[in-house]
Amino acid sequence: MYLKDPDEDDNLFVIPKERRLKILDLLNKYEVTALFTGHLHRNNYRRYGSTELVSSGSVGYPLGDDPSGIRLVEVDERGLRHRYVNFEK
Asked: What mean pLDDT do residues 2-25 have?
């Protein structure tokens, strides 16, 4: 959705601002707990209201500090948990 701030200018790595703000309003309206996205080529974690925004890095070509890996998401009666599983360990 965005890298640092919901109001940041459009760039190659974010949803265009006009669309982004509409989507963020919907996340708030419907009290979405988490939104998971990919293809950012690095991990990014943000919070917008009560919604956790999680972007996962690339398996094949990471550009951030995190090495290749996948995100494991678990949902059960206790709630939602996620963690990044590093392939290099």
From this structure: 97
